[in-house]
Structures are given as C-alpha cells and as structure tokens.
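Kindly review these tokens for lecture notes.

. . .
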Amino acid sequence: MKTISIITLVLSAFLLSCQKQNVSPASSERNAYNEELKGSWKLVSVLMGDIMDLPCGTNTPSRGDLSLIANLDSTSTSGNGFVINGQSAVNLYFAHLEVLSYNQEKLEGTLKISNLGSTKMAGTYEMNACESRFFNILSEAKNYRFIKSNEGKTILHLGTFNKNPMPTYDAGTYLIFEKVK
C-alpha cells in the first residue's frame, strides 16, 4: 500500500511539472507591438483628411527631421507603456504613450498619449506653426498601425483614423513615420 501511495505521489508530481506553459494572447501581442514600436522613427508626411502634406508644409525650411523615439517604460505597471521623445520643428519633446489594444492580424491598435512636454526655444512663425500641428496631432492620437512599404520599410501611422464605414474622402488625421532603427 505504501508503494502504491509513493508511486502515485511521484507520478502526480511528474505530471504537474510537465504541464505545457500557455502564453496568453495578450502577452504575445504585446511582444509583437513592443518590437515594432520600439526604436527611432522619422516623420515623412502628414495626412489631414484627404490631403497628404510634407512634415512642415511645402516651402517651410526644416531644422532637420521631425522624429519620434519610443522606448519601453520600465515603470509601467501594465507593460504596455512607452516613453517617447524626439525632435519637433523647433523644440525637443517628451511624452508617455500607453497601448490600450492591438490587433496582431491587422497590425493596428489604440493608444493614449499623455504628459506631452517640450523645451521652450523660439522659432520662426512657419516653424512654430509646423510644431503646433505636430503636437496637436500627436497629443490627440488614438490609433496606430504598421504598414510595410514597397521597399520593405516599416511605416507607422499615428493619429486619429476615420473608422466610419461609409465611403468618404476623410481618412482621418495622422502622422506618417518611417522606421530609421
């Protein structure tokens, strides 16, 4: 009887230790968008409804590329937080980005950007207008998606997408970034 009890105990312990580990869909999706979103991005254009524009308009001189750098936020309790920063038209900026949802099949999701701040350097009227548009779209962003270009580059759309199922010329308002690294 003792032998059967010992065998049962050993067999039970063995079976419990061999259970398959399940990775929740949330964590596999988190890893997918974490890897895509992390890194350096360069603003290549801005979509405003049905109009595609250059980062600072057609004739506005630029002090360099408008950029976004995303790093995982080690203090985020959800594991979905990023610290973002970069160069706008005039100033350096910083903010917190929280991913709220992600659809791995469509490569798109929802997010919230908070605590947007910047340095306070002076710029020309044109550069300040460019920066103001950039900050407005960034601070109001609710959606994002990843696209692969024909050249194989990763493109990030970040802003507010028009989700209206009716045909329309208004695709939303969003920033279009190209991954640099």
Remarks:
- The longest helix spans residues 2-17.
